[in-house]
Amino acid sequence: MDPLIPPLALAIERQLGYPQRLIETIGHPVIWFGKLIGFCEARLNTPDRSPAQRKLAGIVSLGLLILSVLIVTVGIRTILSWLPLGWLLEMLLATAFLAQKELGRAVAAVSDALRSSLDAGREAVSHVVGRDPQALDEAGVARAAIETLAESTSDGVVAPWLFLLLLGLPGIALYKAVNTADSMIGHRDERYRDYGWAAARLDDLLNWVPARLSAILITAACFLVPGASPGNAWATARRDAPRHDSPNAGWPEAAFAGALNFQLGGPRSYEGEIIDLPAFGDGKAVLGPSDILLALLLYRRTLDVLLAVSTVLAVMVLVS
After folding, report:
1. What is residue 314's predicted lDDT score, i.e. its pLDDT?
2. According to the model, what pLDDT value does residue 132 have?
3. Which end of the chain is more exposed for a tag (fewer CB within 10 A), N or C?
């Protein structure tokens, strides 16, 4: 793989995102993954199966997804390797699996909406979180947006970039496919507890390094954000991340909380059920639209640090 692919993919996707016209015309890779995942789930995760059979069916479904993604992307990459500037096309295809621009836009929209009204804020945040927005007050809406921004910094940007760096187009596509499967079927309710087991465990494995790398990048970005504390970001991440139910999600969330002296996490409602989650950080708990904007600044500086790291790595490979 050409070493310029990761930094160029980051730079271009951050500015352009995934064009809406393409979504309307051919869809998006995540949509395609979702259709295959839904097709398999409807046929394999049936009520008449035992828990063991459901778990096996989930493993088979995940294997089919991975095999399909690898066949397509390895084939595309092989064809592109025959072309004089095929690496540029591989780089452009890779941008579809990054989410820098859309993530920032969606979270900024929550801040704008919340300034208008609580109902508007709830509507805006419903597009970026899975919890019940009607149960949130203004501070809850703000926290939900910032928590999503923090967690998605890892699984929407840093993790895809890392797998692109290591394995090229097949790597970033494979990561995104597994992450999509986890978001769709990796739940602990009765329907998905067994069927989604493999997707959830593999997603945890793939995100182990990126989550911790994200906390390091967020800590480094604090030096570029007035008032942010790199020392508190890292200390809070190390202290509070293990409290999270997920082995990975707590790292970027706690780093954001410590960096900005916020308190994130805490109880939240999913489909009417209150889930008691731990809090991250010891700072300000009553957050608002301006706090979302501050978190967005930290997010953007984290992207700057990631691009700088990616560029340095590319130059090191080129001159070696």
Report:
1. 97
2. 81
3. C
Q: Is 65 exposed, middle or buried (0-12, 13-18, 19+ CB in 10 A)?
A: buried
Long-range contacts of 249-254 (CB under 8 A, 24+ apart): 249/151, 249/154, 249/211, 250/280, 251/154, 251/211, 251/212, 251/214, 251/215, 252/150, 252/151, 252/153, 252/154, 252/211, 252/214, 252/215, 252/218, 253/147, 253/150, 253/151, 253/280, 254/215, 254/280, 254/281
Q: Round to whole Å and give the CA distance between 54 and 57.
A: 5
Say whether pTM exceeds 0.85: yes
Question: In 3D, which of 243, 288, 77 has the Cα closest to residue 167?
Answer: 77
Domain that holds residue 208: 5-319
What residue ranges of the chain have pLDDT lower than 70? 267-276
Read off the DSSP letter of residue 237.
Answer: H
- Count of domains forming the chain: 1
Question: Residues 224, 307: contact at Cβ < 8 Å?
Answer: no
**DSSP bridge pairs for 279:** 265
> Which residue in this structure is represented by tokens 């805490």?
266
Return the residue matching tokens 């895809």.
Answer: 160
What is the chain's Cα-based Rg?
20
Interatomic CA distance for residues 44 and 312, integer angstroms: 46
Helix (H, G, I), strand (E, B) or coil at 264: strand
Shortest CA distance to 22 belongs to which of 84, 79, 96? 96
Does an H or E element contain 245, and which? none
